[in-house]
């Protein structure tokens, strides 16, 4: 049935534009029309509009549920993945404690937390894991998550360095060089820089070479000989990252 103007009865009707003040109810349920004769703007009920709206709403709900089914599984996997290291670490697994400590330190998949990082690194370090001993020593050195303690930091880093862990050897050289946690000893700084440089640490090689002019020739010869001896001994033992035995005794101080 064709529409007629309610004012003049004309059947010369056309569609009219929607206006912002028309209201949501009219926009949803009615269609605006305008009479070509008297210019009256009026409304006509449109049964298709609410039907189309319901179809669109149902489609939106279905799409949301469908997308939600895909996101649920990864979240479950993610929770399981993030909780697994905690479970293993709490059970005393030193490697899991190290990984968890590093994740907390770096904010890798967890909220960054220096205190938690130091806690787990310390537990792994006390089980003899060389890499954990090094990172725990650095935490003590910088006071990250624990009370700063230069002497304790020196002790942990020295243990790891003696077991052939190159980053610890370089750090120990720095501690001797500047007298952090120990007395200044440029000769022993040269020794540890030399050992770290032998494992490919460029920064250690540069630091070692910068000390040459500060030492006597006989000191350099003595430290080079000690470095060769220590390097030979290290080659007879498993890698420091997995070795869990007690560290070798400290080398005697240079006269």
Radius of gyration from CA coordinates: 37 Å
User: What is the SS-derived class?
Assistant: mainly alpha
As laid out across the biggest beta sheet, the strand order is 1-2-3
User: Which descriptor suits the 3D outline?
Assistant: rod-shaped
Number of helices: 10
Order of helices and strands: EHEEHHHHHHHHH
Estimate percent helicity.
Answer: 55-70%
Quick one: biggest sheet?
A: 3 strands, antiparallel
How much of the sequence lies in strands comes to 5-15%
Please mark out the parts with pLDDT under 50 across 5 or more consecutive residues, or reply none: 75-79, 241-255
Overall mean pLDDT: 82
Distance between the termini: 114 Å
| Strand elements, count | 3
Short description:
Helices cover 61% and strands 5% of the residues. The protein is mainly α and 255 residues long.
